[in-house]
Design goal:
This protein is mainly alpha-helical. 58% of the residues lie in helices and 7% in strands.
Length: 250
């Protein structure tokens, strides 16, 4: 740890060799689109020199306005300092944007459900005199007028940014596919089923042992629970069957 008097900034220098099994974020068996950090892809990484703290996982704020400020700062950091575009940093960046995408995906799904409930309540209040609402008038108004598409759009943007930084990482592509399919729980999704399946297939070709079985389970889950056309449901079930047997699609 040293202080640079010219820039008035502290710097952390790590000079050592790491031998570890590194997680390719987040392959999990669960019912919702998952976050980051369970299945590990084996690799040995030699990293000597200056390690910037900005490439590691940040804590993402919960408040909506704070998230917006945080995202603006992260974009400025990641896209203005091109000299810092080295391999290990991009892996951490990819995971950071997946984490941001997951946050916006969760917000969009929760807002969509609240909007549906508020709409149902408003309809029942008009039709049933004895109906007792669970939301206040203000809560119902805010839920029905929430701009869900903004959250959907931000989710898609962060997924695409994660793929830009981690397009050669099986775990990143697999999680991106899972998040893309999770977005089909809300209306006006901007990531197509075919696009998500393509990301999944790219992940499989990079490391089928790591992701194929997990992708099969996740795609089967979304084929049963996402809001899909019959064509896309069949397409997803066919892909799930292929990945479930440990085979890539192309």
């Amino acid at each position: 740890l040293f202080f640079d008097s010219q820039t008035s900034r502290w710097h952390f220098v790590l000079s050592c060799v790491f031998f570890f099994f590194q997680a390719e974020d987040g392959i999990r068996d669960a019912q919702e689109s998952r976050g980051l950090g369970d299945v590990y892809k084996r690799q040995v990484l030699l990293l000597v020199g200056l390690v910037s703290g900005s490439v590691f996982y940040p804590e993402i704020p919960d408040d909506g306005q704070a998230i917006s400020v945080f995202e603006a700062e992260q974009f400025q950091t990641d896209f203005t300092d091109r000299s810092n575009f080295f391999g290990p940093a991009n892996q951490f960046r990819a995971r950071k944007y997946l984490k941001l995408a997951k946050r916006h995906c969760d917000i969009a799904i929760a807002a969509s459900r609240a909007q549906s409930e508020a709409s149902d309540e408003a309809e029942r209040l008009e039709e049933e005199e004895s109906f007792s609402a669970t939301m206040s008038d203000r809560e119902r108004f805010l839920a029905m007028n929430r701009d869900i598409f903004l959250e959907i759009w931000l989710t898609a943007q962060h997924i695409n940014t994660a793929i830009m930084f981690g397009g050669n990482m099986a775990g990143v592509l697999a999680e991106a596919a899972d998040l893309g399919l999770a977005m089909h729980q809300v209306p006006d999704n901007v990531i197509g089923v075919e696009e998500a399946i393509e990301w999944a297939d790219r992940a499989c070709h990079l490391d089928s042992e790591l992701v194929a079985s997990w992708l099969g389970k996740r795609m089967h889950h979304w084929a049963e629970h996402a809001d899909l056309t019959s064509h896309h449901r069949k397409l997803l079930k066919r892909a799930a069957k292929g990945f479930g047997t440990g085979h890539c699609l192309v």
